[in-house]
Amino acid sequence: MKISEILSSGHIVLDVEAGNKEELIKRLVNELKKEVDEELLQKIKQAVLDREEVMSTGVGKGVAIPHAKLREMESNYAVFARLKRPIDFSSVDDAPVSLVFLLVGGCAKSSYHIKLLSKISRLMNHDNFRHQLMMAESAAVVVELFREEEEQPV
């Protein structure tokens, strides 16, 4: 299980502008419109926003990992964003967020989804990795950074 296997350069958006987390989440979910139909896209948006209502997915250090599981989904999808300007995400450390990793998947693969969330969290906890993501000049570079970071010994 590797993040770099579900994160493609087509699902990486750099220097995104968003006024708030709801606007950002909707923008990131819209990145999946080539993979899922409009009805499922709306369900994904609502599920991610509902999850955010339960508890913020702002995990600290300028990172958020909004996520949701839906019965209608069979595959896992990821979208990574780097914001042009940080936004409030009600993070655990009250710091604004600049790096966001959206993860959505199906309920049938719940343990896989949880393992992916855990792996994303571990990777994003590394200061140097976050710095490299902030400096990345293209989506291809971001994918390569994730690939390299996953190859590092734990």
Molecular structure report:
- With 154 residues, the protein is of the alpha/beta class.
- The chain has a single domain, classed as Mannitol-specific EII, Chain A.
- The chain has six helices and six strands.
- Strands 1, 2, 3, 4, 5 and 6 form a six-stranded mixed sheet that branches.
- Strand 2 and strand 3 form a beta hairpin.
- The mean pLDDT is 92.
Q: Which terms would index this structure?
A:
Mannitol-specific EII, Chain A; 6 helices; 154 residues; 44% helix; six-stranded mixed sheet
Residue-averaged pLDDT: 92
Sheet-strand content, in percent, reads 15-25%
Query: Which CATH architecture would you pick?
Result: 3-Layer(aba) Sandwich
Number of domains: 1
The secondary structure category is alpha/beta
How many angstroms separate the termini?
A: 15 Å
| Element pattern in H and E | HEHHEEEEEHHH
Q: At the third CATH level, what is the topology name?
A: Mannitol-specific EII, Chain A
User: How does the major sheet shape up?
Assistant: 6 strands, mixed
What is the gyration radius calculated from CA atoms? Answer: 14 Å
CATH superfamily descriptor:
Mannitol-specific EII, Chain A
E-strand count: 6
Approximate helicity band: 40-55%
Which CATH first-tier class would you pick? Alpha Beta
- Uncertain parts: none
The helix tally amounts to 6
- Principal-axis shape equals globular
